[in-house]
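Entry 14. Ran structure prediction on the chain below.
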Amino acid sequence: MSLFSKPDYLSLPIPKLPPVRYAAAGYYTSAYFVIESKIPFPLDDGFYFENVKKFDPEEEPDYFLEFGYPEPEPPKKKEKIKQKTIVLCHGLATNGLQFVEDAYFFAERGFRVIVPDLRAHGRSKVPKKNLRKKEDFAIKQMASDLIAILDKEQVTQVHWVGHSLGGILALSIIEERRDLIEDLVVFGTSFSFEKLSFLLSLIQGGGKLLSRDNQNQLFASLISKNPKTRALAYQMFKDARRDFIFPIAQNLNNLDILDNALNFDSAIYMLHGEWDVFIKKAQRITILEMEEKNSFFYKNIRDAGHLTNLDQPKIFREEILEFVGGGWIFFD
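Output, structure tokens:
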């Protein structure tokens, strides 16, 4: 008999995942999806807006009578467009489903959007047991998967938005390939962790006390107060491969990647959901270390938890648009 009655949020609709692409890295194959921009070119000032209807003189009957008919213009050579790219990278035990609606939003505003599934998450593929090694889930190894995706898509530089582990992996990428990341937005993350004994015990021991389904419901209820967020979280936890989550979490224990953040010569914007109890304690140390850095910015978002983008999508998207549009740049 179930310890929980089925919650109402389980009947809520879940976004459909876009078609998958793959990039291989050793025995592992990383899944990701790409949403192409619906605007043919970015504006010169760096800001991105929806298409604005241009004036068409043929719709004004008196225009040609007053100003005359123009000479026909020779056909112009089509120039190659340099597309701005955003990566939306999920964290531990979730997957690209977390960012489906965000991906379409940013694509409608001129960005090419890449959403990966981390190693052993979502639609990514893993090798047979005899080919797996403990070091396969090291932070640097998982970061190399993401570099492989960007290289396959021939991306030269991105705006990176990372949730939890997705933010940590960006800092590992910066250490290896500084050229790839233009600026960084993180949420639900810290740049150092002392001990994660409680989280590790919860991951490892939860299954011994609860059925898998009840455990997924419990995690979904802890992560948010929002029914829609809980529905997505439940689905992602349901799809998570438990045998891989624990070894990845072990690599976060006593992790310190603060120097990478302090040495990053561009801007970092940290968003924090006020209900996010999972990361609050560890994040205090990060903020104390980072607050002297002129290009580090922090914002607390009310009525949001660990999955801030799902709890407060409008605020989350507006903050990112302003930031990547140059809202952080100082002028003399």
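The chain has a mean pLDDT of 85. Will compare against last week's run tomorrow.
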